[in-house]
User: What shape does this take?
Amino acid sequence: MTPAPILRGKRLLLGVTGSIAAYKAADLASKLAQAGAHVDVILTESATKFIAPLTFQSVTGRKAHTDLWGDDAHVIHVGLGESAELLVIAPATADAIAKMAHGLANDLLTLTALAARCPILVAPAMDGGMFEHSATQANLRTLIERDVTVIGPAEGRMASGLMGKGRMVEPNELLGHIRLALGRGGPLAGRRVVVTAGGTQEALDPVRFISNHSSGKQGYAIAQAALDRGAEVTLIAGPNSLPPVVGAVAVNVRSAAEMAEAVLKACADADALIMAAAVADFKPESESEQKIKRGASNGYDLRLTKTVDILMAVAEQKERTGKPTLTVGFAAETQSLIENAREKVFKKKLSLIVANDVSAADAGFFVDTNRVTIVDAGGGASELPLMSKAEVAESVCERIERLLKSKGW
Ligand code: PMT
Assistant: This one.
């Protein structure tokens, strides 16, 4: 996990209760600490039977609290509860949920939960029957009514060996929910941002297609950076193997034509469109209904036609409706990076274009890093050094934020 501005320096409180899923909480604490958050952990007595406080101390670099209270016992819960920006209880047992629902405060964690004035996330973990029990359901409803966010549980195999709904959601998904909670009210709050990612697939027959090497990483990183700033994000993506971005409305498409339809629809009320997708420029002139046979001839002639230019279609829609307010394109170039990017920014009527040299081994398609130059509508170029795709995403979102503000949009 690379440092993330949304988590850097944030004071997070992680409550761990007695479930086998407690080991996943150590992974979560580690990821949060690596991302730059200050993570204070409180373990209930039963949690310490599953995992040692020392595990959390080792991954967070901070003291992990238990019910073995010291001299500061009378104030510690108030201090922890009041200074935290978010309280996450993961895993949360049926017992812990019941105590919270009824305002019980007979251990450090439940005391702190009562003292806390920050948003609370709860990730239940228990056997399926316990989760479905009307008492647990009523307790969860009570928490939700009090604005506690309940995440999961997920379905799958549980410690009892039974299948059902009761597994704590995975740490990466929890991380997404934590970012979402921290980003609420951020500088892009109330803004609708549409992001495209990945490559399109243009079918030749039922088993073959033309595509490219886009992994979707750059687009997904932009969607995450926009969510971190509080935006409402629609992520329109071609086929890829990335985990979903928690909080984004996901629209999965295959071809350029499908992506065009989804983009134009989502842009009808959008403040910004960021086209990081590598959309195919050409598609087979016709798609065979049956698998094309190898046959006896030595070759196969493939005729291609142009696909729809999505950004040009967006420019036309914008002329008619004014939406999206901002349009950001990407330019994937192997030569004359800035000249080609300038040409595209004017031709496609963009607010900005992010140019990347995709012939470099450490930039462009698939890798985790990128080196980009951001070219504005007037042709002004600012070159950024090699950075992670997450950092590029931060820079792009910063520019969008500044543009929306400076133009009074
Ligand atoms: O997904 P990754 O592996 O992380 O790789 C990231 C990336 C290299 C794909 C990304 O950084 C990138 O450069 N995306 C744009 C790729 C591209 O199609 O560039 P282009 O120069 O061919 O197109 C210019 C712009 O027009 C792009 O914003 C593109 O989305 C858009 N376009 C292209 C073709 C088309 N038919 N319609 C379009 O709207």
